[in-house]
Please model this.
Amino acid sequence: MVTSIRENLELVREEIRQAAARSGRREEDILLVAVTKTRPVEDVVEAVRCGVTSVGENRVQELLEKRALWPDGDEPEWRLIGHLQRNKARKALSAASAVDSVDSPELAAVLSRIASEEGRTLRVLIEVNTSGEASKHGVAPEEAENLLHGILENCPALRPEGFMTIGPLAGGEKEVRKAFALLRTICETARDNTGLALPGLSMGMSGDFGWAVQEGSTMVRIGSSIFGARR
Ligand SMILES: *Cc1c(COP(=O)(O)O)cnc(C)c1O
Model:
């Protein structure tokens, strides 16, 4: 590795700062979620030492392994950002502080039922497939608000905080920003219709987080720009 996690984080924060300034926003309004899939726990510890407060993992098992290896000292907020199967819901609840990838009423119901049994609540985001790419998880844009209403009516232990999307993997600035603008519109409409704050607008990864911030992202999920390319 040529550059250090600390230096990479500085560069990422500077880019967030600039994108925020360009759109009249404040850097503090954007949460940096460090995405640590495939990385050893030492890398996560180093990121936290450099000020990272929130970590995103794709797989429940990997998240549990990292927490088991965590040294003494404060843990970050652990967010599950990858597709979650219903049969792993209980494990997910034991591992994560928030699930950002709720993509079906069935998954929401199982998470809520288990959280209720355990006498707790769970913060969630609804994942939306804004690009229509077949490889992506997430509900269709026109289903996003239905899922939110379903959660509000049927899932008393869930605390919906907003929406999440992955930008189109193919496509230039125009297509990518269009997908992010769509998620922002979905969130704004849902705020108007529910009266909820819904502060979470999770969009932007290493390749596109500058555009995401300009489109209103409040949570960027960044892996390779901090930790280097994954093998
Ligand atoms: C891997 C991943 C990221 C981070 O991707 P990078 O391109 O490495 O920044 C963000 N969000 C999700 C859902 C991911 O799976």
